[in-house]
């Protein structure tokens, strides 16, 4: 059987037979097809003769035996062979492209996202996905936009091309794995093989670009490169990488009018998330053991999600920062001074804005439940007859207590509503919130 399959061709796994429907993608290792089996439609990655090596076969077999870390991964399900032993491939779930879009299309401007929560949720789920992968003893090796799909309505994600995945901390550095701009500096310099530590650097790059639309290392230095080649990329990403917002080294700042799209976002983020990015691309840039762990990203991004609010002049989404109550802030879109803020809820060290459409999640009110970022426990509701009266509906199974204006303690069970007013204290059971 050849490198290319045709419509109607059949290939077989140990237990099923699949018919080729159409080609849906191609790459350096081979082609991807939509196929039909006894249990429905799947995707088939079919390796060309050069990539059909015994090592690749064994690698796919290992992944199938280990099983997928979670539903976020488009994981190999079965090895398939044709009539010739010179070619093989593997069956995997088929991505619903009516819902999921390649992340690269977002950066190409083909997808418009109006709500920050969708981008933040995608980053949270991405961090959680790689946390699950690393906990299973594996690393990805080639995180890049071409391998990531996002549902830009919900923030859900899918991670594909999982034949990149291998055991963590392999020592072989003969083959460079990764995509330019995403590889950790030590891989670019040829000093290290891919590992969970290098994955953490790539993850930080993706999160920064998702939220700022600019590469964290592409500023003045890249602008000054006349001809981009291997040596210039090695300097930019490997031997002399500098964060565009490095607090000490200002030689790689965004270039006004040329390489400055991050300037429309970075200044308006709360200091906490900016500090985390700064740590990731200063200390973490040079010391693999000081990189930001996935759980730290999830916690910080969940806090950022709670800080989303609105400019009440143009309805553009902005972020609450505690400095907003101490100094004049302006909306990045309409440039009006932000004078009105909704009530906000303080839980521990975290601030959650109580907008008209706010949703509260378990990990925002329970510090011991970092990974419960998808479990909604409350939402803000406006009284249908009295628009000035807002409440917080309990969507959890826990019983809350609060003190009324008359100093009575009341219980709120599931689907009950706590009135939102300044000075209100709400006991969620494991934590206490104060509304300001």
UniProtKB/TrEMBL annotation:
Transmembrane portions of the chain: none
Keyword Transferase included in the entry's annotation: yes
Domain called Protein kinase: residue spans: 18-319
The entry's keywords: Kinase, Serine/threonine-protein kinase, Transferase
Residues making up the signal peptide according to the UniProt record: none
Example GO molecular function: protein serine/threonine kinase activity
Superkingdom: Bacteria
Name used for this protein in its record: Serine/threonine protein kinase
Lineage: Bacteria, Bacillati, Bacillota, Clostridia, Eubacteriales
């Amino acid at each position: 059987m050849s490198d290319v399959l045709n419509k109607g061709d059949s290939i077989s796994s140990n237990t099923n037979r699949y018919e080729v429907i159409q080609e849906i993608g191609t790459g350096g290792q081979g082609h991807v097809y939509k196929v039909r089996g006894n249990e429905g439609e799947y995707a088939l990655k079919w390796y060309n003769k050069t990539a059909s090596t015994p090592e690749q076969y064994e690698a796919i077999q290992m992944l199938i035996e280990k099983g997928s870390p979670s539903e976020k991964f488009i994981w190999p399900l079965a090895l398939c062979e044709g009539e010739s032993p010179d070619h093989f491939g593997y069956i995997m779930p088929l991505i619903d492209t009516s819902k999921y879009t390649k992340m690269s299309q977002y950066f190409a401007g083909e997808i418009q996202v109006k709500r920050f929560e969708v981008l933040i949720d995608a980053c949270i789920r991405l961090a959680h996905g790689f946390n699950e992968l690393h906990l299973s003893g594996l690393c990805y090796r080639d995180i890049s936009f071409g391998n990531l799909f996002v549902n830009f309505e919900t923030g859900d994600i899918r991670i594909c091309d999982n034949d990149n995945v291998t055991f963590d901390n392999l020592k072989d550095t003969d083959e460079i794995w990764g995509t330019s701009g995403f590889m950790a500096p030590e891989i670019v310099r040829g000093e290290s093989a891919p590992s969970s530590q290098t994955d953490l650097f790539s993850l930080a790059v993706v999160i920064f670009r998702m939220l700022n639309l600019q590469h964290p290392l592409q500023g003045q230095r890249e602008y000054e490169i006349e001809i981009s080649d291997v040596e210039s990329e090695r300097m930019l990403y490997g031997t002399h990488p500098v964060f565009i917002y490095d607090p000490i080294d200002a030689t790689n700042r965004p270039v006004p009018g040329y390489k400055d799209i991050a300037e429309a976002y970075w200044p308006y983020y709360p200091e906490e998330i900016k500090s985390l990015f700064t740590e990731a691309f200063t200390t973490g840039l040079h010391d693999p053991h000081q990189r930001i762990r996935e759980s730290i990203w999830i916690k910080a991004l969940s806090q950022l999600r709670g800080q989303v609010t609105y400019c009440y002049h143009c309805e553009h989404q902005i972020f609450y920062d505690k400095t907003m109550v101490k100094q004049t802030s302006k909306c990045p879109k309409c440039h009006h001074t932000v004078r009105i803020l909704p009530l906000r809820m303080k839980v521990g060290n975290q601030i959650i804005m109580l907008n008209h459409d706010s949703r509260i999640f378990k990990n925002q009110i329970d510090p011991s439940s970092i990974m419960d970022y998808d479990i909604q426990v409350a939402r803000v509701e406006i009284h249908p007859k009295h628009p000035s009266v807002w409440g917080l509906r309990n969507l959890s199974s826990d019983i809350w207590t609060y003190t009324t204006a008359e100093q009575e303690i009341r219980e709120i069970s599931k689907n009950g509503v706590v009135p939102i007013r300044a000075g209100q204290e709400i006991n969620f059971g494991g934590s206490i919130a104060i509304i300001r």
